[in-house]
């Protein structure tokens, strides 16, 4: 019996939580708006010096407001169905070389076999960076 897609997704989520995997979320535009707003207000109120101080203050505010990282487990749950199928196929290439007949055996294999864990982790990281175009942080 082959593990189901739900079983594989669950194991990938467990693995990502164990490894505390997070992806960087590019919010540079949002941070740039904060900097622009600070520079604009500073320039209106204080001329050249206000422009410089407002830009610095806006940049600092933008850097503290934006969220930089998201847990991979959350990203996996929000994927579209075709992305889940791609991850499933990628993970099954790893799983097929080990003896895992169902989801329970898959979780047991994950907790007891470091080679399996490392190979599945590499497949998960590769999928995230290549297919989802996200950088791991």
Explain what the structure shows.
The chain is mainly alpha-helical. It has helices at 5-18, 28-65, 72-77, 81-95, 103-112, 114-131, and strands at 22-24, 69-71. It has a two-stranded antiparallel ribbon. Helix 1 (5-18) packs across helix 4, helix 1 (5-18) packs parallel to helix 5 (103-112) and helix 4 (81-95) packs antiparallel against helix 6. The chain starts with a helix and ends in a 6-residue tail after the last helix. The mean pLDDT is 87.
Can you tag this structure with a few keywords?
mainly alpha; 6 helices; two-stranded antiparallel ribbon; 137 residues; single chain
| Tally of helical runs | 6
Strand residues, percent: under 5%
Low-confidence stretches: none
Mean pLDDT: 87
What pattern of helices and strands is seen along the backbone? Answer: HEHEHHHH
For the largest beta sheet, what order do the strands appear in spatially? 1-2
| Helicity range | over 70%
Output the structural class.
mainly alpha
In angstroms, what is the radius of gyration? 22 Å
Extended strand count? 2
Terminal residue distance = 36 Å
Please describe the biggest sheet, giving its number of strands, its sense, and whether it closes into a barrel: 2 strands, antiparallel
Tertiary shape: rod-shaped
């Amino acid at each position: 019996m082959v593990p189901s897609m739900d079983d594989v997704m669950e194991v990938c989520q467990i693995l990502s939580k164990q490894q505390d995997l997070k992806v960087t979320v590019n919010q540079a535009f949002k941070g740039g708006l904060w900097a622009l707003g600070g520079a604009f207000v500073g320039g209106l109120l204080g001329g050249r010096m206000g422009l410089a101080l407002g830009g610095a203050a806006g940049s600092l505010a933008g850097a503290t407001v934006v969220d930089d990282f998201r847990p991979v487990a959350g990203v996996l749950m929000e994927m579209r169905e075709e992305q889940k199928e791609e991850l499933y196929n990628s993970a099954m290439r790893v799983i097929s070389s080990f003896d895992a007949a169902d989801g329970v055996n898959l979780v047991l294999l994950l907790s007891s076999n470091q080679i399996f864990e490392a190979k599945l982790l590499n497949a998960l990281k590769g999928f995230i960076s290549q297919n989802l175009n996200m950088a791991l942080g």
